[in-house]
Design goal:
With about 240 residues, this protein is an alpha+beta fold. It has five helices and eleven strands. The protein has a single domain, classed as Chloramphenicol acetyltransferase-like domain (Chloramphenicol Acetyltransferase, 2-Layer Sandwich). Strands 1, 4, 7, 8, 9, 10 and 11 form a seven-stranded mixed beta sheet that branches. The protein has a two-stranded antiparallel ribbon with strand order 2-3. A two-stranded antiparallel sheet has the order 5-6. The longest helix is centred in the middle third of the chain and has 17 residues. It comes from Parazoarcus communis SWub3 = DSM 12120. GO terms for molecular function: acetyltransferase activity; lipoic acid binding. Keywords: Acyltransferase, Transferase.
Length: about 240
Amino acid sequence: MTTSVATHPPGASAAARQTVPLTGLRGAIARNMTQGWQAPRVAHSVDVDLSRVETLRGERAAAGDKLSLNAFVLHAVAQALRAHPRLNALIREKEVELIDDINIGVAVALDDGLMVPVIRHADTKPVSVLAAETRQLAEGARAGALTGGAYQRGTFTVTNLGSTPIDRFSPVLNPPQVGILGVGRTRQQAVVKDGAVVAAPVVNLTLVFDHRAVDGYPAALFLGEIARRLEQAEFD
């Protein structure tokens, strides 16, 4: 009987096998994303002119109140959810549960995963409060300082890749929620205003929704209202 031994050229070494175990946080993300991917999901997408929002942000910054775009998006989403309650819902085994409280999850990227702390009663809060809570939750999530309750009872999720080169993307649903909004980067783009072509700051919003709970037309109305509120800078 002979024994075969693998050999390598002089000076070479076998490459070490590297793996990422699907346990702990990574395992929880894998299970959650698998469940979300199995839903019959549909994506709607719209480009939004942020000219008025950016003007408002500049005015607030000059007054010492620096606000992120995400805070304005959260405000628009929260108000649109109040007007379109079918998107503020959780899907159960044989029913869709409409939730009265509007609790928006905000995706926070960590070094080894993604966490989604929740802003509760988001429709009752002005942009400045939404901005402050988003900062606090993001800092707490990255420091591992949030309790389990901070991640519970979400009814809709917003995930923002505006700090990356990504223009648009279709996020995976965060089950049992029936909707999630993906926000791309703000970019300068040619738009038509009063018959003239001008440059304007534009962001893409992509709504992914569970078609078992919501049909395409009402989902389009919901996304259209978010876009309208941002383009007209409707903020209480």
